[in-house]
Amino acid sequence: MPKEAKFYHALFDGAVQCDLCHHFCRINDGHPGRCRIRTNHQGKLFTINYGRPASLGIDPVEKKPLHHFLPGTWTLSLGTFGCNFRCGNCQNWEISQRSGETVRLLFRSPESIVRDALDADCPSISCTYNEPTTFAEYALDIMNLARSAGLKNIWVSNGYMSGNCLDAVEPLLDAVNIDLKSMDELFYRRICDTFLQPVLDNLKRFALSNAHLEITTLLIPEHSDSPETLRHLAAFIAGELGPETPWHISVFVPEISWKMHDTPHTAAEALKRAYDIGKEAGLIYIYDAYTHEDTLCPQCGKIVIERHRYTTTRHDRAGSCPECGKSIIITS
Ligand code: SF4
Description:
The chain has helices at residues 93-96, 110-119, 136-148, 163-169, 185-192, 197-208, 227-241, 268-281; strands at 3-4, 8-10, 16-18, 26-27, 38-41, 44-47, 55-60, 74-79, 124-127, 152-157, 175-179, 212-219, 247-251, 286-287, 295-296, 303-308, 311-314. The chain is built from 8 helices and 17 strands. β12 (212-219), α7 (227-241) and β13 (247-251) form a beta-alpha-beta unit. Bound molecules: iron/sulfur cluster.
């Protein structure tokens, strides 16, 4: 059942403005917004993905990816359908770029999601797979219940939510991974049909919040892997968010992308180059899925958290290096 949206206001002639993300769609009666998840019905805005997960599973928290938040634990993960971005590279396009009619959907109340997490002994719930902003009302109801039940709340997001949305989400959020896709405005315009600046502004706000923050950048050959842009991006993370902010460099797989089948795979050299650029910028924790999975002590180089794919072994002593005692950022 469609549910009235929380973040909108009425305009004139029955039109409304959605205030949930930075597109701030003006929507006439009978029409959907840009994400196709929110529809104006007789001057009221309704969301159609409340309580309708398209994906529900239990993942290692490392898969979000989060490497410094509850390492080695499982997280109940859910996503619905739809997105406010249109990224040609999207690897979850089968739910993010489809309307509700063409996706197999479940019915799950917020109460049942929290009960599932508790039954499965998951210490956290992740809003992931598609953009959580598009199902903010559902996510917020889950997050409130999860917080009362002693569970942690995680978002994996493109960072394009409005200030109003962030005001509501931030107090309930324990950890977030934000995609910083590029520092090139043209990339955001061309590949995602959006703008870069709101993402940068929100990242600065997350860095000042109580939520633990990690960043992911997908290296798409010829689109987001130029050394110059990566230098700019790494300098932004180190300078504006802090050098201890974990940075995940991930690999583009054209076969499963929405529209970029002719773009090549990310080469191993590109991963190495990005890692070196991050190090030169002063970033302390940089990860990729191949050669840099472990968390190393920035002081003595000892392995503090060891990872093989999604198997994690902690060697830290209460968040400190077992060798030299240096404190490592780990939320346990
Ligand atoms: S969530 Fe964003 S894209 Fe969707 S209707 Fe609202 S402002 Fe538009």
